[in-house]
From TrEMBL, chains A, B:
It comes from Streptomyces shenzhenensis. Residues 27-124 form the HTH arsR-type domain. One of its GO terms (molecular function) is DNA-binding transcription factor activity. SUPFAM superfamilies: Winged helix' DNA-binding domain. The keyword Transcription applies. This is Transcriptional regulator.
DNA sequence: ATGTTGTATCGACGGACATCAATGCAACCC
DNA sequence: GGGTTGCATTGATGTCCGTCGATACAACAT
């Protein structure tokens, strides 16, 4: 059911370490290709809402039967979007009896957040702070 | 030069406040549409590398003439990608004499990072305690 | 076994997107 | 002025992607 997910998650603590992240050093092409796949998965309103519904669920899991009726889209379309989110490593799922449940993989969102976070204590001598007097 | 950028940046501290963010409450459709535009802009390896090169630049600015030769792509293509990043509110630019300089708008990346950050100290009673269904 | 319900996959179609060559425009230099 | 360089825009083209109906598959009910 799931065998070709992206390998952008931790594990390879050598190629990109844990937190150099996009804003501090020029991304090499391989890293850019992998990262772009994840961001592309987030680049659709339906998938963003799906992810949000899954992530904000109290129990941590959502049944597909609760997701599908929230959209004006066909059931195959929702299934397609869930598949893309899963291939991006953002969620995972499990069949339990008749129903299939999805949950968030917080490792990926954590990784994206840290990638987008600039180093806190940068000297930052440039233009941005030129007008502040206090 | 720049007049139709997205309005996802702060400013409207009422519609979505400052930090509810994607993982805690179901995104409504309008928010999802706006957010998806930004993530879509990040969903391309070339644009990710461009953004990374711009953001990690010491002086805070990069001349287009330094960006274009770093890719095996035509000059119009690079210009096109820079335009998309700018329309997403991730960067801005200014012409200075013969050359055009681009710089990062950290408000947007900061916003994305906070949106992807889950609340640190959530009680997280999760699945074990929710067995009282019917 | 047969039927029913929940979910995934397939094939097709229309629109969106990445890319290019050609061209336009702005700023410099002679 | 005319020529040159840096960058943006235009128009065209091939590919990708979101969507659907039809269908297949899995689990349960009878």
């Amino acid at each position: 059911m799931s065998n070709q997910e992206l390998v952008v998650l931790g594990r390879n603590d050598e190629t990109d370490a844990c937190c150099p992240g996009l804003l501090t050093a020029p991304l090499d092409e391989d890293q850019a290709v992998e990262l772009a796949k994840v961001f592309k998965a987030l680049g659709d309103p339906v998938r963003l809402r799906l992810l949000s519904m899954i992530a904000s669920r109290a129990g941590g899991e959502v049944c597909v039967c609760d997701l599908t009726p929230a959209f004006d889209l066909s059931q195959p379309t929702i299934s397609h979007h869930l598949k893309l989110l899963r291939q991006a490593g953002l969620i995972d799922c499990e069949r339990r009896g008749t129903w299939v449940y999805y949950w968030l993989l917080p490792e990926m969102t954590d990784r994206l957040a840290s990638i987008l976070t600039r180093p806190a204590a940068e000297p930052l001598p440039d233009r941005a702070a030129t007008a502040t007097a206090s």
